[in-house]
Amino acid sequence: MIREESRKIIEQYVEAYNSFDIEGMVNLLHEDIVFQNFSGGEMNVETKGIQPFRELAQQSTAMFSSRRQKITHFENADDKIAVHVDYEAIVAIDLPNGLKAGDKIELKGTSLFQMEHGRIIRIEDHS
């Protein structure tokens, strides 16, 4: 069973993410946060620590004019919490992967969260 406290922290994190509230996101993280992004089964981004995470989050805000993760459901995944999301975003700038400003991205993904001492210590985004 997922602890209510952990669920609320994750919901606050997603709300801050959707609002481009970087400090709101960072305030929920453990100082040793590890963030990894996987696309098609391959890791394409990794940060370790608060400052590298903050820098990545600031860079990503410039890439999207809007973005929204909608949590569809939570489930236990070993020592992590799997959060299934529907994701939508509008690209703000032309990107190296061929997406152009104004393009819409829609996908389903799963984020794995690990908690330590009431803070998020690990996030793995899978799409």
TrEMBL record:
It comes from the Bacteria. Residues 10-122 form the SnoaL-like domain. It holds the Pfam family SnoaL_2. This is SnoaL-like domain-containing protein. It comes from Paenibacillus allorhizosphaerae.
